[in-house]
Amino acid sequence: MNGLSHLDDQGRARMVDVGDKAVTARRARARGELRCTAATLEMVRAGKTPKGSVISTAELAGVMAAKRTADLIPLCHPLALSQVDVAIAVEDALPGFSVVATVRTEGRTGVEMEALTAVSVACLTLFDMLKAVDRTMTIGAIHVTAKEGGKSGAWEQI
Amino acid sequence: MNGLSHLDDQGRARMVDVGDKAVTARRARARGELRCTAATLEMVRAGKTPKGSVISTAELAGVMAAKRTADLIPLCHPLALSQVDVAIAVEDALPGFSVVATVRTEGRTGVEMEALTAVSVACLTLFDMLKAVDRTMTIGAIHVTAKEGGKSGAWEQI
Amino acid sequence: MNGLSHLDDQGRARMVDVGDKAVTARRARARGELRCTAATLEMVRAGKTPKGSVISTAELAGVMAAKRTADLIPLCHPLALSQVDVAIAVEDALPGFSVVATVRTEGRTGVEMEALTAVSVACLTLFDMLKAVDRTMTIGAIHVTAKEGGKSGAWEQI
Amino acid sequence: MNGLSHLDDQGRARMVDVGDKAVTARRARARGELRCTAATLEMVRAGKTPKGSVISTAELAGVMAAKRTADLIPLCHPLALSQVDVAIAVEDALPGFSVVATVRTEGRTGVEMEALTAVSVACLTLFDMLKAVDRTMTIGAIHVTAKEGGKSGAWEQI
Amino acid sequence: MNGLSHLDDQGRARMVDVGDKAVTARRARARGELRCTAATLEMVRAGKTPKGSVISTAELAGVMAAKRTADLIPLCHPLALSQVDVAIAVEDALPGFSVVATVRTEGRTGVEMEALTAVSVACLTLFDMLKAVDRTMTIGAIHVTAKEGGKSGAWEQI
Amino acid sequence: MNGLSHLDDQGRARMVDVGDKAVTARRARARGELRCTAATLEMVRAGKTPKGSVISTAELAGVMAAKRTADLIPLCHPLALSQVDVAIAVEDALPGFSVVATVRTEGRTGVEMEALTAVSVACLTLFDMLKAVDRTMTIGAIHVTAKEGGKSGAWEQI
What we know:
Oligomer: homohexamer
Shape of chain A: elongated
Radius of gyration of chain A: 18 Å
Number of strands of chain A: 5
Largest interface: A-B, 59 and 59 residues
CATH class of chain A: Alpha Beta
Strand content of chain A: 25-35%
Structural class of chain A: alpha+beta
Helix content of chain A: 25-40%
Largest sheet of chain A: 5 strands, antiparallel
CATH superfamily of chain A: Molybdopterin cofactor biosynthesis C (MoaC) domain
Order of helices and strands of chain A: EHHHEEHEE
Distance between the termini of chain A: 31 Å
CATH architecture of chain A: 2-Layer Sandwich
Number of domains of chain A: 1
Strand order of the largest sheet of chain A: 2-3-1-4-5
């Protein structure tokens, strides 16, 4: 046994059998960020630029992407998500934006991938909406910050 | 004029009109990375773990995601891509993996978003295939490294 | 509390948490219509025009669209539908077509949106198949006619 | 010849051959409305309810749906849209909302179906976001208001 | 050079570069069959069973699937199809059904995969609609029968 | 009653009501093959040609397609699959490749269609990756080999 449950004995990729896992309430939270120049951030923060739309478009894209996770990640199980929330905040210190996604389901597998996918697509959407004014932006620091449910129980990291 | 072409005068999000832009050969390259523990990387590098499959699954997921970009990013134009290449390498120095995507089209808009989407989904897929052995991994440093074609011409950054 | 469950305190759009709602049998029915000229309807009714195909194509498009609802409506929850039925009838009185969709699931949220989506896409498909002969058609009167299951119980309107 | 180009001699549904049609600039505009109670509209207009988000979510859903038209309408040709714009306005007189979608392409077929699909899905999304407070809403008056390009030339109706 | 254009020097799967290929009119035709028992075929042929619907549902599924080819086949290029036609016939001699799909585009790559995908999904749909009465059916003999356009020119096989 | 549960009394296609069926563990296995020339097979088997990638790409495409079944087959119910495994083997005797797919769910309907779809798309992907060297290949012998769960119980055929 090699610890990588997505690969069988011969190394063939497959969608692992979760049919015998318990259906439990599962929740995951992921975080990421888009770094841009202070000037770009100022443009979004200032009155002239409709900040609300940039951020709300990206939040919505993240929510919708969470529902497409099993279509995008080859070996992810399809899950009926019961909640998706994506929150983007302006972060002067970066400068840039932070993105936090929370996903919940009642199912047989965790929802980390759904939360990470929501964060990734929200960041890509921010990039898309700002690339005309700043092409040096960087997406990063995407990771799972909390997880609940399933055999491994609750877990958290900053 | 606010410099953000995706938002109209009232701040309404829309897919901007590119109908009057010239059809030219366009190419973009993006880069990103997945950081993991040295132990995880060793497991992938070692013989027991089928490295080929982890990497080739993620490369393929990246290629397929590039074709879904306009479905995921709300205001992206659909484009008939003529080439998509995703290359993943083991990087001992991180430790982790580097992901480079190259995309080409003949069209009216650039393909940075397609390259960035390919990199992001390849990273997410690596994460998915390794999360059973390492849940502290981080996806980051996703940015455009080169761009050619269109009015703005060739451009490069490290 | 503002009564709009899709928007949180700050007005951010999100997919609301239904994880604590009960799984119950839910059913919804929606109705709509496509109005066309009497001449267009006659062409469909008459022998020369293969009416069956126009109607059966639109019915099938409606069924398939119901399964795509969560992909189209940003904040809809994905649901495993247990039944979808779309019935289109020629209505001389309009003149035009009536479309009725019935959807059923065992789940945590209602299926009105699935029924309304089925009706809408069936109407769009009728429009698509007849637009070569009539470009003044109108789609309308799309509404929910009945709903069962969940906390609010059974409900009906004409 | 029966005038219905989507059906062949035996009445079989097919995606008609447009390979010999000229590639021209094509544009279409469609319109529709969601009728609700004055109280619902007031809730959206008033300060407490985040109107911006309801409307911007529906506008974005309409833009994204336009890109999915060929996936939803069985015999529609896939088209590389060069512009999609969806504008929703509060209409006290209805009471309700008006939705106008404008779509543009360089292609071999018109884009009426894309404009109509954008309007329909924007209306469905408004419905979804307001159904918790008003289940008697009706979607209607969806029709093409203008069309340009192709052999039939420019055309308009109110 | 190994003759397999989808794999680069290191054996990495990629979507090959067709950006330098000429845009030409391309057409492909594919064929396949579903074999069933004579009793199943009789049930479809007889009056009681609505044959039209079984066949027309499968034809429509084939047309729609052709448009999804690049989504399903990892390394297929997205193409704007200009025609898709799927014709299913009852074949007493098999006994079973024959399926023929014709696809046309103006593009940089051929459309064999689109024609083969249309045939495959039409056969799967026939199977789905008849499996309640016959679970021993077999799908087979799926192959390309004709191809036109591109550097290799016209080609045909029975 | 005509035995074809997908068609109602008037012959209208619909997604049948499975809401009253029991949720049970269901499994299905399907098989198929791609026949090619011995020379093509030799090229894949030989060292120069990266066989692993051809086969692993097709296996992955099959797994992903299984999750899209309800999107492709008009009247299939959406199901949350708990396992998908696709195994491709080189078969000198054909010559060609055999493809076996195993699918498992906890649900109200069987998963034969998911297994058959996985096999079909894996075969199409093999075809796509080898068509540059062999255009006379044939996909065939696709059938269900085993089924478990539901009212009809276990069943097997070679």
